[in-house]
Amino acid sequence: MLLIAHRFDHILKHPFTISKGTRDSQPSLIVELQQDGYSGYGEAPAIFYYGVTVQALADEAMRVRDTLAEKKLSTPEELWVWLAQKKIHPFLLSAIDQAAYDLYGKIHQIPTWQYIGGKNEHLPITNYTIGLSSPEQLLQKIQENPWPAYKIKLGPEKAIETVELIRQHTEADLRVDANAAWTVHQTLELAPKLKNLGVSFIEQPLAVDDMDGMKQLFVESVLPIFADESCQTEEDIAKAKNLFHGVNIKLPKCGGITPARRMVKEARQLGLQVMVGCMVESSIGISAIAQLLPFLDIADLDGALLLKKDPAEGVEIVDGVVSFAGNGNGADLAGLTGLTV
Fold first, then answer.
1. Residues 32 and 23: beta-carbon distance below 8 Å
2. 3-class SS at 47?
3. What is the pLDDT of residues 134-158, one digit of tens each?
4. CA angle at 134 for the pair 49 and 214, rounded to the nearest 5°
5. What is the pLDDT of residues 276-309, one digit of tens each?
6. How many angstroms separate the CA atoms of 159 and 161, rounded?
7. DSSP H helical ranges for 247-334
8. 313, 208, 281: which is closest to 52 by C-alpha?
């Protein structure tokens, strides 16, 4: 297999703010695996608060390029095991794993969702995420993007006033993401009011190390609590039992589709609800994540919708409904390339 790495700087439609900071662009490394006349694609967004840079990912990709050139893809799962033994960064491991599923499906003429045992029916809709915003900005984003479900990034201050304002302009399902910025007291005080406003769950209200607080919320919160920052790798699924009602799995954090499949299965066995989320990324990354839709309760696949210009093609999302595209992940760079490493 030939590995090619493309560097992109995705420009956002609007500045995107969460509790960890604001950005108006998102650097990303898109990897391409070539074999037998086909190309498979995967993506590793360089998220600043995870300490990830495109340059570091690109350098690491170049270190495995020569050894990859000596291999022929048998299955994505086999390749993941081989790469994991090399201890490469999980974001890069995820990107190559995504590309392997895409390449395998294109070579063998089968969509990834079908290859991994899914059915293209009763798929959950994806929400549209709105970052921390002023009331004016918030309403503008909702009016520009009428959607059946929104995920709202909220601090504890004026949380109720913000959701009340949103509710005046939409009947959509609302989901709240605190990004670990709340306290136990704030969460317990806000949860009943948010529930009355039609919020369906709260994502990661507490800091990752607040174990006692999570235990209390698990028992006392009137809204389900989902783990995000507390759900990084496969080992975190078992830890989530009796602390959270559901988990949000993200491919870059866990290392790709292969471990995410195992995480979904284990979460189900433990009685946890399952959500798969995205970061700000193009349709390359979103198309890979979307292959897990048949196995999910909740989906957060709006990363490419936040971009001013998507350099890729893949799954189509209209009014929250995701439609698969082609074999593999259905991903393509649409004739565009970034800066090739």
1. no
2. coil
3. 888 888 888 888 999 999 999 898 8
4. 50
5. 999 999 999 999 999 999 999 999 999 999 999 9
6. 6
7. 251-254, 257-269, 283-290
8. 281
- Which tokens sit at 142? 């909702």
Structure-block tokens of residue 287: 């198309």
How far is Cα 43 from Cα 38, in angstroms, rounded to an integer?
Answer: 17
Spatial CA neighbour of 44 closest among 319, 336, 288: 288
Match 């948010």 to its residue by tokens: 194
Superfamily of domain covering 2-114+335-340: Enolase-like, N-terminal domain (3.30.390.10)
Alpha helices in the chain (DSSP H): 54-69, 76-84, 90-108, 112-115, 135-144, 159-167, 184-196, 211-220, 235-240, 251-254, 257-269, 283-290
Give the tens place of pLDDT for each residue, 92-131. 999 999 999 999 999 999 999 999 999 999 999 999 998 8
Write down the residue that tokens 């790495």 correspond to. Answer: 5
245, 216 contact by CB (below 8 A): no
Q: Reply yes or no on domain 119-323 having CATH 3.20.20.120.
A: yes
Domain locations in the chain as residue ranges: 2-114+335-340, 119-323
> What is the C-alpha R_g of the chain?
19
For 261, the token pair is: 């499949």
pTM over the 0.85 mark: yes
Please tell me the predicted confidence (pLDDT) of residue 335. Answer: 61
- CA-based nearest residue to 201, from 209, 211, 191: 191
Give the pLDDT score at 22: 72
Tokens of 264: 């979904």
